[in-house]
Automatic annotation (TrEMBL):
<feature type="domain" description="Protein kinase">
    <location>
        <begin position="418"/>
        <end position="698"/>
    </location>
</feature>
<feature type="transmembrane region" description="Helical">
    <location>
        <begin position="362"/>
        <end position="387"/>
    </location>
</feature>
<dbReference type="Pfam" id="PF00069">
    <property type="entry name" value="Pkinase"/>
</dbReference>
<keyword id="KW-0808">Transferase</keyword>
<dbReference type="GO" id="GO:0006950">
    <property type="term" value="P:response to stress"/>
</dbReference>
<keyword id="KW-0325">Glycoprotein</keyword>
<dbReference type="Pfam" id="PF00560">
    <property type="entry name" value="LRR_1"/>
</dbReference>
<dbReference type="InterPro" id="IPR051716">
    <property type="entry name" value="Plant_RL_S/T_kinase"/>
</dbReference>
<keyword id="KW-0547">Nucleotide-binding</keyword>
<keyword id="KW-0067">ATP-binding</keyword>
<dbReference type="InterPro" id="IPR032675">
    <property type="entry name" value="LRR_dom_sf"/>
</dbReference>
<dbReference type="InterPro" id="IPR011009">
    <property type="entry name" value="Kinase-like_dom_sf"/>
</dbReference>
<dbReference type="InterPro" id="IPR008271">
    <property type="entry name" value="Ser/Thr_kinase_AS"/>
</dbReference>
<dbReference type="GO" id="GO:0005886">
    <property type="term" value="C:plasma membrane"/>
</dbReference>
<keyword id="KW-0418">Kinase</keyword>
<dbReference type="GO" id="GO:0005524">
    <property type="term" value="F:ATP binding"/>
</dbReference>
<dbReference type="InterPro" id="IPR001611">
    <property type="entry name" value="Leu-rich_rpt"/>
</dbReference>
Length: 719
């Protein structure tokens, strides 16, 4: 290899190669690109690897290299991308005397020590610095302000000291700033106000003092705010309630905060993780009931009082330790209620520890025996009543179930008895009409046709009643329903933006869909599906996920429609001895061909197809594909043959992301996630909860994954 004088590119990534990289590499050739990622190379980095002065890409990450970073690598003026982590590299950072071409530098997960050299200020075109998990110490130099193009700065898990320099205010393009787990001190500088593009700010695990600044509302795109583990005092500013974009986490734990939680925090209805633990906060938790998207919460070891909000009972059951250390906190329900069975971490409101001690075993036994006898009598009476009701129901089914007859009359009136001119669309499960009852009350009416012999029944009634109770910001709200003998009407909230299918494939002229909109649609759809799969009891399978069943509101926020309807129609088909498979061709998982029984994994596969449609703007079965080829097969074969993401990504999207490292990494990550979702093997697909976690974490962690996606494209994917 070292004798090949015309050698320009070496790509050996993703193998199991071992041994030492030849130390003469680079001396006799003008190398342009070297990629040895994901091997087991040991030894040191060849000292003359940049000798040809044409090297643009040096990627030696994910190996076992040791020794220091050669000084000539630091002074390699042609370098554009430098990735040396993770390895076992030691020594100090090299000087960066002449690196104006350098755009991306990742030295994370090594054992590099020493201070950050002032010569870093010469790398004026840097967009990404990832130096986390090393042993760097000393202050962050003021020359950081020279890096006006910086978008990602991750210096977390080092030993940096001193104050955060005000000069960072010049880095106005930063969207990820992670300085967590160092020894930085002083107040949080006002210079951060210039970083208006911030989406993730992580300052946890330092020694920042003073109060929480009032300028955070200027960060209108902020998804994550980590301030835990400092010595911040004072009260929580009410202005944090203006951070409506917060989604991944708000962490204020392990500080010295006092006072009550401002009610404005209850407006953060997209927030998924909240940590207020280990402070001196007081008052009740009632101000936080508006946090409708919470997956995790920790309020332990404060001075909160009063009942845990009823909507938080699942959170209490899943993580009782997150509520400990608040003597005045209690559960506002009677012992024995189904919602309190698992909640043993807190007392019931109104009870005292003294009463518990005075309650003898004999009293408990007598109470249990008495309660059991009463329960027996109640169950006996209920059984008799239910038996009579069942008999009466069998004798005669009512002609109309549920719903307001007044609203039904209005719907029929404004649609002229469901005249076809009000029709929005037709599908295998029924016809949808638009009903404008008033300017403020516009509905979508779905008409389901039942088999003449089967008709509506009590099982169907219970199913729809259950669906009507489900509420989530990414699910279309079922407002009302009516069941007749031969048909049913389901009333949904109307979505102004139409279906995702219409926006992607039918609108003329086709609207430009920026990446942030596509990402929001991908994440919102995943959140809605995860809620159906993981938070509903019993779990609800959609069984027909596709762009036509993803509706968009005026803000392009996605809402899943028709969840649970496939099961209802399937029950009718089963009763009529039909073996039809519910779903849509192009979205079926491979196992559906052998088994008509749907599963969560089937929904995940369909969701993966939707992701591919979002990225490519091709239909699941597109006219551009060869016969018998679907979108999964087309993307896999095209990527495998061209090794070029541009060959499959929507050209409009490519035009947007070509100049942004951040956006390219996010698109790479979503493409890889789509491949995992459409894996041939159902057990290898992620759960929808995992999908949500990956998408929310993708804003900073998606880089460098396209290569893995390309490998997967020729492997365990598709049909």
């Amino acid at each position: 290899m070292t004798e090949l004088k015309n050698l320009k590119n070496i790509s050996l990534f993703g193998n199991q190669l071992t041994g030492v990289i030849p130390q003469a590499l680079g001396i006799n050739s003008s190398l342009v690109s070297i990629d040895f990622t994901n091997n087991s190379f040991s030894g040191e980095i060849p000292p003359h690897i940049c000798a040809g002065r044409e090297l643009r890409v040096l990627n030696l990450g994910h190996n076992l290299l040791h020794g220091s970073v050669p000084s000539k690598v630091g002074n390699c003026s042609s370098l554009v991308r430098l990735i040396l982590g993770p390895n076992n590299l030691t020594g100090e950072l090299p000087e960066f005397a002449n690196n104006s071409s350098l755009i991306y530098m990742d030295l994370s997960l090594n054992r590099l020590n020493g201070t950050i050299p002032r010569s870093l200020g010469n790398c004026v075109n840097l967009t990404t610095i990832k130096w986390s998990r090393n042993k760097l110490f000393g202050p962050i130099p003021r020359v950081i302000g020279n890096l006006a193009n910086l978008q990602v700065l991750n210096l977390s898990y080092n030993g940096l000291t001193g104050q955060l320099p005000q000069q960072i205010s010049r880095c106005s393009k930063i969207y990820l700033l992670d300085l967590g787990f160092n020894n930085l001190n002083g107040s949080i500088p006002s210079g951060l106000t210039n970083l208006t593009l911030l989406s993730r700010l992580k300052l946890q695990g330092n020694q920042f003092s003073g109060g929480i600044p009032d300028f955070f509302p200027k960060f209108t795109s902020l998804l994550e705010l980590q301030l835990g583990g400092n010595t911040l005092g004072g009260t929580i500013p009410s202005s944090l309630g203006s951070l409506r974009s917060l989604q991944i986490a708000l962490n204020l734990s392990s500080n010295e905060l006092t006072g009550e939680v401002p009610f404005q925090l209850g407006s953060l209805n997209s927030l998924q993780r909240l940590d207020l633990s280990l402070n001196n906060l007081t008052g009740s938790l009632s101000s936080l009931v508006g946090l409708s998207s919470l997956l995790e919460v920790n309020v332990s070891f404060n001075h909160f009082m009063g009942p845990v909000p009823e909507k938080w009972m699942k959170l209490l059951d899943s993580s009782p330790n997150s509520f400990l250390g608040n003597p005045g906190l209690c559960i506002s329900c009677r012992a024995g209620d189904s919602s309190c069975v698992k909640s043993t971490a807190l007392n019931f409101c109104g009870s005292t520890s003294g009463n518990k001690k005075g309650f003898s075993k004999i009293h408990a036994i007598l109470l249990v025996l008495g309660s059991s006898f009463i329960c027996f009598l109640v169950c006996l009476a209920l059984g008799c009543v239910l038996l009579r009701l069942k008999k009466a129901e069998a004798e005669k089914m009512p002609s109309l179930h549920q719903g307001s007859s007044f609203l039904l009359n209005k719907v029929m009136e404004v649609t002229e008895n469901l005249n076809e001119k009000y029709e929005l669309g037709r599908g295998a499960q029924g016809t949808v009409y638009k009903a404008s009852v008033s300017p403020e009350n516009v509905y979508a009416v779905k008409k389901l046709i039942f088999d003449d012999q089967q008709g509506s029944n009590s099982s169907m009634l219970r199913e729809i009643q259950t669906l009507g109770k489900i509420r989530h910001r990414n699910l279309v709200k079922l407002v009302d329903f009516w069941l007749r003998k031969d048909y049913g009407l389901i009333l949904y909230e109307f979505m102004e933006g139409g279906s995702l299918h219409h926006v992607l494939h039918e609108m003329k002229p086709a609207p430009v869909l920026e990446w942030h909109i596509r990402y929001r649609i991908a994440l919102g759809t995943a959140q809605g599906l995860a809620y159906l799969h993981e938070d509903c009891n019993p779990s609800i399978l959609h069984r027909d996920i596709k762009p036509k069943n993803i509706l968009l509101d005026s803000d392009m926020e996605p809402h899943i429609a028709d969840f649970g309807i496939a099961k209802i129609m399937d029950q009718i088909s089963s009763a009529s001895h039909s073996t039809a498979v519910m779903g849509t061709i192009g979205y079926f998982s491979p196992e559906t061909a052998f088994c008509t029984r749907k599963s969560k994994e089937s929904d995940v596969y369909s969701y993966g197809v939707v992701l591919l449609e979002l990225l490519t703007r091709k239909k699941a079965l597109d006219e551009a594909f060869q016969e018998n080829i679907d979108i999964v097969g087309w993307v896999c074969s095209t990527l495998h043959s061209t090794n070029d993401m541009e060959a499959v990504i929507d050209p409009d999207l490519m035009d947007e992301i070509v100049a942004s490292v951040q956006l390219q990494e996010e698109v790479d990550g979503v493409l890889l996630l789509a491949f995992r979702c459409v894996s041939k093997v159902a057990s290898e697909r992620p759960t929808m909860r995992d999908v949500v976690k990956e998408l929310t974490g993708m804003k900073s962690n998606a880089g460098g994954m396209l290569k893995e996606a390309r490998h997967r494209s020729s492997g365990n994917v598709g049909k």
